[in-house]
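Hi support team,

I've been running sequence recovery on a batch of backbones for a student project. Most finish fine, but this one hangs at about 90% for roughly twenty minutes before it completes. I'm not sure whether the input is malformed or the queue is just slow. I've pasted the structure tokens below so you can try to reproduce it. Let me know if you need the job ID as well.

Thanks,
M.K.
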């Protein structure tokens, strides 16, 4: 077994520090840049319907209504309030299922025309977490007719935290 001399150890540490320092800044809502995953058992038909916003980065968006009208194939028509920006706006556009596990591409004014992933949904589709792979947006949604249960809301926030989102930037 070779011994590492102190000089070599310092050089390795400096090289590693140089790599760490060169890392680009993470997007607005992410604390750490890492691997993000979408919900593996996504059922597009069950996700369709009316939702209300519980948490988002848009100030004043809590309680906003959203409708995700599913066409039975691969597309949702979106209406209600768009909470993807700094302030609430009119939500109009479409979201197309582009891959497995709740991977969608929003088009039109909705969600700034970018990929949106379903990060998590409970087994009964009562509460859901959506986010963008680049971390620029996240939202927690609950069904219109379902009171937000504390355990489900905590689970949704844990999913956001696990995926590297800064929960302080997603107020109620």
């Amino acid at each position: 077994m070779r011994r590492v001399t102190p000089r070599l150890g310092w050089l390795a540490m400096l090289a590693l520090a140089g790599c760490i320092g060169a890392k680009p800044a993470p997007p607005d809502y992410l604390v750490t840049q890492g691997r993000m995953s979408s919900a593996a058992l996504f059922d597009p038909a069950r996700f369709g319907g009316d939702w209300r916003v519980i948490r988002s980065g848009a100030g004043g968006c809590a309680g906003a209504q959203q409708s995700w009208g599913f066409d039975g194939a691969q597309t949702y028509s979106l209406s209600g309030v768009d909470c993807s920006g700094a302030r609430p706006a009119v939500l109009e556009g479409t979201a197309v299922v582009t891959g497995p596990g709740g991977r969608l591409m929003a088009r039109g004014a909705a969600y700034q025309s970018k990929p949106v992933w379903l990060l998590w949904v409970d087994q009964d589709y009562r509460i859901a977490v959506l986010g963008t792979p680049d971390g620029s947006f996240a939202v927690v949604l609950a069904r219109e007719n379902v009171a937000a249960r504390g355990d489900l809301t905590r689970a949704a926030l844990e999913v956001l935290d696990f995926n590297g989102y800064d929960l302080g930037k997603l107020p109620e």
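--
Follow-up from support: It reproduced on our side and the slowdown came from queue contention, not your input. The chain has one domain: 44-169. No action needed from you.
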